[in-house]
Write a structure and sequence with these properties.
eight-stranded antiparallel sheet, disordered N terminus
Length: about 190
């Protein structure tokens, strides 16, 4: 008997359900990567990313991304909740003024210079002009280390308290800047 979750998730993979809109790749040193002029013709958006920052030393294996929509820099318009685990400790946190979402990998020692964090970010009802926007993120990183704090997985939710349709997304690096090779791809998800 098929497992319902597998059936449900396979429906999302129907050919043509996801359409590539744009991608951005850092050459190194950028603090912000932007998707602009996003069309309003989809039901939802998805961002898939691989990334790292340019710190010169390891700092616990985490990189926070700051998502901003339509150039809105008012922290009070954002809220987030986070569940995080590293193999030995699980934590939960939340804030009503916290536009951070995602994890990644700091540069760390030279043996880790090719290690990147990964992230999938879903943005629901992005084109709606009558409701706030809900975002969810699943991300993780592993610095190829035996230190638990450098092996992180996160599940996050975020709320942008605006009824404006999202037509621009800024992905900001919290620490220093993005390292070369950091890449984010934006997809549109078609309606049923």
């Amino acid at each position: 008997m098929p497992i319902p979750g597998i059936i449900a998730s396979s429906r999302l993979a129907i050919t043509g359900a996801f359409e590539s809109i744009a991608s951005v790749t850092a050459s190194g040193g950028e603090t912000t990567l932007t998707f602009a002029s996003i069309p309003s013709t989809y039901q939802a958006l998805q961002i898939r990313g691989i990334y790292r920052d340019s710190r010169t030393a390891s700092s616990g294996g985490q990189l926070s991304l700051i998502l901003r929509f339509n150039n809105d820099t008012t922290d009070a318009n954002y809220a987030a909740h986070t569940l995080q685990g590293n193999g030995s400790t699980a934590t939960a946190s939340g804030s009503t003024s916290y536009p951070y979402i995602g994890t990644g990998v700091s540069t760390g020692p030279s043996s880790q210079t090719t290690t990147y964090g990964v992230n999938i970010i879903d943005i629901q009802d992005y084109a709606s002009t009558s409701r706030y926007k809900t975002i969810r993120s699943f991300s993780g990183s592993n610095q190829n280390s035996t230190v638990d704090s450098e092996q992180v997985i996160k599940l996050e939710s975020m709320l942008w308290q605006s009824t404006s349709a999202i037509n621009e997304i800024d992905i900001n690096c919290l620490y220093v800047s993005f390292a070369a090779g950091t890449t984010f791809a934006l997809y549109g998800i078609k309606g049923a």
